[in-house]
Amino acid sequence: MANVNTIKQPNQQTSTTKGRLSWLWSEYSVIIAFLVIFIAAAIMNPRFLDINNQLNILMQVSIIGIVALGMTVVMLSGGIDLSVGSVLVFVGVITVLALNATGSILVAILTALVVGSFAGFLNGLMVAKGRIASFIATLGMMAAARSIALYIAEGGSISGEVSSFTAIANSDLWIFDFPVIIFFAMTALVYILMHKTRFGRYVYALGSNEKAALLSAIRVDRVKMGVYTLVGLLVSVAAIIETSRLNSISSSSSGVQYELDAIAAVIIGGTRMTGGRGKIMGTFFGVLILGILNNMMNLMNVSPHLQGFVKGLIIIIAVVFQKRE
Description:
The protein contains 13 helices and four strands. It is mainly alpha-helical. The strands form two sheets. A two-stranded antiparallel sheet has the order 1-4. The longest helix is centred in the N-terminal third of the chain and has 43 residues, at 2-44. It starts with a helix and ends with a helix.
């Protein structure tokens, strides 16, 4: 008996160690990846650790980070939103029109929030009530929103006439720019919404098994419309910051490929494409990883034409790791 116990104990210890490592990787893989990439970037280029460079990374990822928070919620519900970039530029154009017409920054901000939320609500209506696949519904919204923005701005840029509007994106508090502070605040709010409220639990339930959620008396259609409306609201916040930077917005170039960056950040952050599993903090670190990679490619003078290739490669690798788990 003594010999049997002696043989079993090492096997049990090995199994326990593997289990702990597996749990550690499953729960904190994105943070581990962030630390590895951060250290590698610091070793490859000493300029990376410069405080101004670090703050510059945070500033650059703030807008796409806010959009990615919304994309996380919709992907947790089992859907996807391809219209975020086009809705952003559409909201930006309407915001400038409201700003110039009234001269009031408050009215412009409220207009942006209403228009963005309504665009998201329409997406949710098509998905929940129209039974249209989210990929198709938001693809249609993507084309429509960009087209209207181009028509209003006559294919070019549209500028605001109230110069103080730029204070939103160009002011700072201590060492942090306002967009970074807004990004942190939005992350905290969406985290609380998804992990501490009934709505968040419903979204996870919907993404895990829609039929089970329906049988559990969850109003699936309302949750879906709420999810897409929330995405539209967050996109409108991003649009306000984007427009405020230069007090103008380009109907043709602003928001281009934002959906790709947002989806990349969400997938890198560990959220499943099939929904039901993922974390807001994972997306937060996914956004930072993308920001570091972009920054390193710029510091190493990598062609901007190849940066999209790198992002695509990272998405594929992240999905492969998800499938292995």
